[in-house]
Amino acid sequence: MARTAHGFTLIELIVVMAIVALLAGITAPRYFASLERAKAASLRSSLAVMRDALDKYAADKGRHPDTLAQLVQDRYLRRVPEDPLTGSANSWITLPPAAGTDLPGQVADVRSGAAGRAPDGSLYADW
């Protein structure tokens, strides 16, 4: 009587594992690059929303807010958004009005507190 073997040989398992490792090695860099692009897009969106709220606040009140929390208090924002790169709503860098501006207040613009470069090569802090 002949016995038939059931299962896989060690060589077959090694070949399959090598193929899986190769596919993972190809897709992982693309996955992480797409995560960085998504964070950058989210940062641009958050900055646009906050800058729009700052402009509306200045137009309505005749002055710039003193803090970002004041935008929430006066209902120009529901909440201060989280910086997608730092993971914190407290890492935003606020910029005062330019010299010669006739509107009082402390916050005329906002930037990310994240270090590093965007996928396009620009600094996050310059956005």
UniProtKB/TrEMBL annotation:
The chain crosses the membrane at residues 6-28. PANTHER family: GENERAL SECRETION PATHWAY PROTEIN G, TYPE IV PILUS NON-CORE MINOR PILIN PILE. Gene3D superfamilies: Glycoprotein, Type 4 Pilin. InterPro entries: Bac_GSPG_pilin (IPR000983), N_methyl_site (IPR012902), Pilin-like (IPR045584). Keywords: Membrane, Methylation, Transmembrane, Transmembrane helix. It holds the Pfam family N_methyl. This is Type II secretion system protein.
